[in-house]
What does this fold into?
Amino acid sequence: MLNDITLGQFYPTNSIIHRLDPRMKIVLTVLLVVFLFVADNLYGFILMAALCVLAVIVSTIPVGYILRSFKPLLFIIFITCMLNVFLTDGRILWQYSFLKITYEGVYLAVFMVIRLFLLITVTNLLTLTTSPILLTDGLERLMSPLKKIKVPSHEIAMMMTIALRFIPTLLEETDKIIKAQSARGASFTSGNIFARAKAMIPILIPLFISAFRRADELALAMECRCYSGGENRTRMRRLKIQARDIVALLISVVFGVAVLVTNTLF
Amino acid sequence: MKIEIKNLTHIYKQGTPFEKKALDDINLTVNDGEFVGLIGHTGSGKSTLIQHLNGLLKPSSGEVFIGEENIFSKGVDLKEVRHKVGLVFQYPEYQLFEETVYKDIAFGLKNYKVPENEIEEKIKTAARLVGLDEELLQSSPFDLSGGQKRRAALAGVVAMEPEILILDEPAAGLDPFGRELIFREIQNLHREKKLTVILVSHSMEDIARFADRIVVMHEGKVLMDGVPAEVFAKDEELNNAGLDIPQVTRILNSIRKMGYDIRDDIFTVEEAARELIKLTGEKNA
It folds into this structure.
């Protein structure tokens, strides 16, 4: 029922992208997102799309898996597209009373849609190819300079790890509770919007209770293991930048520069 | 009420890299009023199977008949099917949500539009059947002990007066005394209300004592199907499926193999002791 949410779920294969240093992957993701916003013409987007396709192929993650992650966001993309189409001023293509479509609007909307799809692909690729532990490890290391100004980077990273770790668990739990209540004759698809909202109560209350129970148990387990935050912690896995990380960075930078070039040319 | 499962196959996440065949061409008939124990190792498909019996899962192929009705044919109201087939999940206490136990038990009844004046009577009967003190009905379900919560959740299904009762590991996580009580209460329900019961468990000890018939599942298939004595005679096959026969039965089986004449349908320590005393008594005489 809820199985088709892939957002933020690790897909383990042993591709070279999976093996990249998580810090590098985070930096590259940010870099690619920036390039996506810098690109302002068709050629720039073709370059970025090519880079994304290349990354997906190298990652050996099934395309269907990535396509499915678009689904929950289609509505937002659609709204953005419509807003751009109808609310941009410029040369008029079509007009009916207060509604108008402009040439610039269509242009912007198309780019915005491409941009959003690539954005989702890039960010999904990060979470699909990096295990949550590595991801937060990388984040923590990237944030560690901020410790100087008293930013609790270790604690932030730990909270994120825990949050990510519990997404699948809570989804599974929700599925179970829905089934259990359905078995008692609850129905979630009939009635008006108020009836449906009310029908959510038998799901939400047990879900919250179990989330709190899990949080409580986890906190206790951590205390039993004398967890005391980031101070003086050593790690089993030390992150080290490898040749492949440099290559990945170079490839991305080359594409980025190419995008900038297309910006000035076209 | 009779259950008939025909060529049932279920594949999880069909068409994805995580595709998994959980049920593989299952054929099974459970007769009216039977008490069937369904055993299998973790991942053998038993939970998947029972979720087909009230339409929570749809089969990839195959049919399920409850009574005379094919529940997956067009136009069948699954909500009505769920009224007839009560399903109690593992750790059912996690589904409690109301302010009082009374209201929680009433949840199912209200979903089925049971008239107000009958609700109280049904709740009290259900509470009595599962061994829940009537005083507890007005307390919050979250103030109860583990065993009491379990009973309250069980009452929530029993109150709907299903004709078939399916329980997934009803005693999981309870202490030995609590286990004993829950099983006795289920047995009572079976006897008093003439319910058809399917009890899912991976504990041979528990199932052997209460079920008239045992169905063993292994890797999505029915591996064995018969009365307890028949099933437990095949201890090697059971071992291969990752299951064990009750310890007493195993001991008695090996004594029998040594050439002594012992009954093959003994699953409790008390009975075994009696049988052994009889055996030594005969020898002494």
User: Anything to note?
Assistant: The interface with chain A takes residues 13, 15-17, 51, 54, 56, 79, 82-83, 86-89, 92, 94-97, 107-108, 111-112, 142, 156-157, 160 of chain B (CB under 8 Å). The two ends of chain B are 50 Å apart (CA to CA).
